[in-house]
Design goal:
By secondary structure, the protein is α/β, with parallel strands linked by helices. The longest helix has 14 residues. Helix content is 25%, strand content 23%. The protein is globular, with a radius of gyration of 20 Å.
Length: 354
């Protein structure tokens, strides 16, 4: 059964215009938006994937990646299908580009998801694998059910969303990781069919107008978004508009979907990016998709002490007080901390919804 949504309006020519993401698709009855899951039906926009998921799995929260939000704890992760970007390098393309809705065999009500998370000891539920912006109606209902049981919510998203639904969506989100694909509009247009400005607007909105903890990830693709110039510009923008305490993750690319002609990101590129970010003044800069203890660990920005040591997603060193201060000098570490570190480690546990 399709779910009636509210962010749309009728046009004079008989079409309806979706108002969730910045694409603002204009659809005739029976047509679907670029995301494929929001469709025109009976003169309104409906969500065709409400209550239907591509699967559930318990992950370490660091895999989202979130390094400063309840470290070491398990998160119940799920997505649906479709996406409102067309990233040629998508590493979840079997989910985000799915056009076969019958593959979504897992059905779960918001209450069922919240109860399951509580029963298996998850501190949070993550909307991930594909962008939750396109199934925000479902995500919000899940978030409300989770919050009623003191379970946090996480969004892994590209941040490509209109202002009005953005306000409602982030009222229900405790933490987010925003994919900042690159720092040129040319890249966004060529590889994602989108625009950089809308993503930057979301980042500024999160910083200035919400209490949502957020971190940023940039996947570095050789020869496309990894130049010194672009990395310096990205990091300088983050410093100016978001400040030094927003964690930045640089992740390694591997050939996938429509970009199989590119090589893997060399480790030297990631180390160079991290050096640039730290020289620009960012306090917390991480390296992803490679095994690198130094690039995965958290250090005190005041005294340099190792606060959280990480071997992949396994925590080793823990030198933070319960409320997130350095155990050596007492300086605050930005983030959301609640007592000692969790002990979930690097396990990945599929969950079957009964």
């Amino acid at each position: 059964m399709n779910f009636s949504t509210k962010y749309w309006h009728a046009l004079d020519d008989g079409r309806v215009q979706c108002g969730v993401c910045l694409r603002e698709c204009k659809l005739r009855d029976g047509q679907r938006g670029l995301c494929f899951v929001r469709a025109a039906e009976g003169g309104e926009i409906v969500l065709t994937t409400y209550g239907r998921s591509s699967g559930f799995c318990v992950d370490p929260i660091e895999k989202k990646p979130l390094n400063h939000f309840l470290p070491g704890t398990p998160v119940l992760s799920f997505g649906t299908a479709g996406c409102n970007l067309t990233c040629k390098f998508c590493q979840n393309y079997d989910i985000s580009k799915s056009r076969q809705m019958d593959k979504l065999a897992v059905q779960a009500s918001p209450e069922k998801i919240a109860v399951t998370a509580e029963q298996i000891g998850c501190k949070s539920v993550a909307f991930t694998y594909n962008d939750p912006v396109i199934f925000m109606d479902y995500a919000i209902d899940v978030a409300e059910a989770c919050h009623a049981r003191d379970i946090k919510t996480v969004a892994v998203t590209a941040g490509y969303i209109c202002p009005e639904p953005r306000r409602e969506f982030y009222q229900h989100i405790d933490a987010a990781n925003i994919d900042l694909k690159a720092f040129t509009d040319e890249f966004y247009m060529e590889f994602c069919s989108a625009h950089l400005a809308g993503v930057l607007d979301t980042l500024k909105y999160l910083k200035r107008e919400t209490n949502t903890w957020f971190e940023i990830t940039t996947l570095l693709i050789p020869g496309e978004n990894d130049s010194d110039k672009e990395l310096n510009e990205e990091c300088a923008w983050i410093m100016e508009h978001l400040g030094p305490d927003v964690p930045l993750h640089f992740s390694a690319f591997h050939p996938d979907w429509k970009m199989t002609d590119k090589p893997n990101t060399p480790p030297d590129t990631l180390h160079r990016a991290r050096k640039i970010a730290r020289e620009q003044g960012l306090h917390y800069v991480y390296l992803g998709n490679i095994h690198d203890f130094d690039g995965s660990s958290t250090y005190c920005n005041a005294c340099g002490e190792t606060l959280i040591g990480r071997d992949w997603y396994e925590l080793s060193t823990w030198n933070l007080t319960a409320d997130g201060h350095c155990g050596k000098c007492g300086a605050i570490c930005a983030g959301v901390f609640d007592g000692p570190a969790g002990t979930w480690g690097r396990k990945r546990q599929p969950v079957r919804m009964g």
